[in-house]
Amino acid sequence: MSDQTPDRPDADPQDYVEHVVNDLAALSDQEALTVRDLTREFGTASFATLILVISVLLVSPLSGVPFFSSLCGLTIALIATQAAWGRDMIWLPKRLLNTEFSLSRLGRGLHRLRRFARWLDGRTSNRLTGLVSQPLSRGVYALCALAAAGLPFMELVPLSSSLIGLAIALVSVGLLAKDGLLALIGLVIIPLVYLIPIYAVSTLLAAS
């Protein structure tokens, strides 16, 4: 698949998360993967699709790999920023495209990922469509970019990367399935997760 090929135009957005997980499962046979491999597999025409792919990886056991969350955060931030800006196709710098990461931990979490995918797919519906349609959808992408940009600072907070990944997955599925309520739930979860380290630090300072 070339970088100019649209993403799975025949796929039903209502069960697209499971499609993504199944495609990732096929890729997991490789010892390592690059960001370029992901863009070739899933295309560069759908911003929400590639954001969904990377957020699913964040929910997987790969989030425990040092600096993997930072890589995902940077990639999602770049993609979401371009969507908010109104670009037609995704552009990523060559250095990021060539970044390689191991898939050794992915296989162990595929069963849980499929359960997560089916759970998420089963809860999509056409609700609050104005939120995930132009022009408001650009603001949703901008908020995703801000959330993802903070992931490098959350590396040391247990489970935070997976929770942010879950929230961004909800938003991206909402954008794909025109489910504004699902996207809104994801947007609400994001600041709550970022409040966890703030609350922990403030509690420690108050106790000292």
Helix content range: 55-70%
Which sequence of SSEs, written as H and E, runs from N to C?
A: HEHHHHEHHHH
Broad structural category: mainly alpha
Number of strands: 2
Query: What is the strand content?
Result: under 5%
The backbone outline, from C-alpha atoms, is globular
Main beta-sheet annotation: 2 strands, antiparallel
Strand order of the largest sheet: 1-2
Average pLDDT across residues?
87
Rounded to the nearest angstrom, the distance between the terminal CA atoms is 57 Å
Rg (CA only):
16 Å
Secondary structure blueprint with pairings:
Elements: H1 16-27, E1 32-34, H2 35-42, H3 47-59, H4 68-85, H5 94-97, E2 100-102, H6 110-121, H7 136-149, H8 160-177, H9 180-207
Helix pairs in contact: 1-6, 3-4, 3-8, 4-7, 7-8, 7-9, 8-9
In short:
This protein is mainly α.
Would you mind describing this structure in some detail?
- This protein is mainly alpha-helical and 208 residues long.
- It has nine helices and two strands, in the order αβααααβαααα.
- The chain has a two-stranded antiparallel sheet with strand order 1-2.
- α3 runs antiparallel to α4 (68-85) and α8 (160-177) runs antiparallel to α9 (180-207).
